[in-house]
Design brief:
By secondary structure, the chain is of the alpha+beta class. About 45% of the residues lie in helices and about 20% in strands. It has 15 helices and 11 strands. The strands form 2 sheets. It has a 6-stranded mixed β-sheet, sandwiched between helices. Strands 7-11-8-10-9 form a 5-stranded mixed β-sheet, sandwiched between helices. Strand 4 and strand 5 form a beta hairpin. Helix 1 crosses helix 7, helix 3 runs parallel beside helix 8 and helix 11 packs across helix 15. The radius of gyration is 24 Å and the shape is globular.
Length: about 425
Amino acid sequence: MLIDRKIAPKFHKINSINLQEPRREVLSGGVPLYMLNAGKSPVVRLEVVLQAGNWQQSTPGQAYFTAKMLTEGTAAYSAAEISEMIETLGAQIDVTPGLDFATISVYALTKHLNKLLPVLESMLKTAQFPEKELTRLKAIKIRQISINESKNHVIASQVFRDKLFGSEHPYGSYLQQEQVDQLSREDLISFYENRYNAVHSIYLSGAFTDSEITAVKQLFNEYTPSMPANAHKAFNTAPISSTWIDRPDSLQASLRLGTTTIGKNHPEFPAFLVLNEIFGGYFGSRLMKNIREEKGYTYGIHSAIGALKHGSYWIIGADIQRDFANETIEEVRKEILKLHMHAVEEEELETVKNYMIGAFLADINTPFAISDKAKMVHLHGLDHSYYQRWINTVQSITAEQIQSLAIRYFNPDALSEVIVGTDK
């Protein structure tokens, strides 16, 4: 029987989610291994998370360059040999430095994972940091920094985090050319020896067998859990600031507004996500309708929450016509005050709820994506029940609760602002 395309499918409200939970096992040395066996394709991903991000470094650039140098040669493999093996096996190894953590990700056909584990072990234990390769990578990074210095949106984001957290804070600092020049091989070796000798957590996902589990355990059984660096680095306590950087040749200006806010561990965070979605989190948000569709000041404006391990921030960002910077800021403030003064209409709230749940379900359609969700809650010290609590909040939150949240967390007078591309 053919489906009648003229008739819309019935709407089904989703009140619960069946999100597969990884099996957790603590290895001999104390490191947790999370295993999510799912999917029909014979592919697998192994992720090793280390507390080796910007938060742990003592010298600017240590975390970034240490991570990037891991594939540039070890005691057992040259950079060329590592590259050739990865290419021959149709695999991929990514080393990603972040603000809180560094992650080594190995993607491979399941049958090839065991062949790649000796390379991973060598990267973790005997990376060599050859001076020639470091010089090359530093030159590449300096060129990237130079190029980014001409991009308004990059500068705006960097200055914004500086204003929120302070230029000496791991979340507020950004790498500069002179800092790259000063970084030495010894700086990287010191960071490597201190931060890569222990592991925070391991995530194995995809279609794997007992053979892969056994091999991963054999590699990591001897590792002990990494100890966190100081978790009490003070945020910037400077007053709310306004920074305008004029660039007369710019056709557009980049806008960043925001403030520090609650993080994933806060009980009201799921509700705060709904509030943010209404305000500026998706294409049908209030900011988009006002500033893009009605005013035509920008092609796109959004708000988001940067939820980090030791602190979070709320940010509004847009590239706007340079002559309408003040007007855009004024409209943002007006939209905040509307949320203070008037409860959200039921139709708008229901639309956002359905969008958020639909987007979540669309985002968990692969084993790797499901593992990513599990990893997120683990890294923030939460448990798997977070997602059911999240969906319960999204489904049950009321317009009155949204209004109350807006009054508490959206303060138009507490927003730091950064504009790059025009002056006042």
